[in-house]
Amino acid sequence: MFHSEDIFIKELKTLENFGSDHLPVYCEFFIDHHNDEQEEKVEEATAGEKTEAEEMIEEGKEENGERDAVVAEG
Known about the structure:
Blueprint: E1 7-14, E2 25-31, H1 36-41, H2 47-63
Antiparallel strand pairs: 1-2
């Protein structure tokens, strides 16, 4: 999960599948504009990781509307 360095993730976990083609994720976080503990834990994304994330976003945009409906209304 990408975030700015003033967002502190308290808990991050995947949830039980509910029939979607997306993985359900639970994230509990808080904003702390200055937290020494967090500054020590911050990991910067590499150039390759940033490129991969951008490619995944673009692929998702291109696929938008081309997927089968997961849940039928009714």
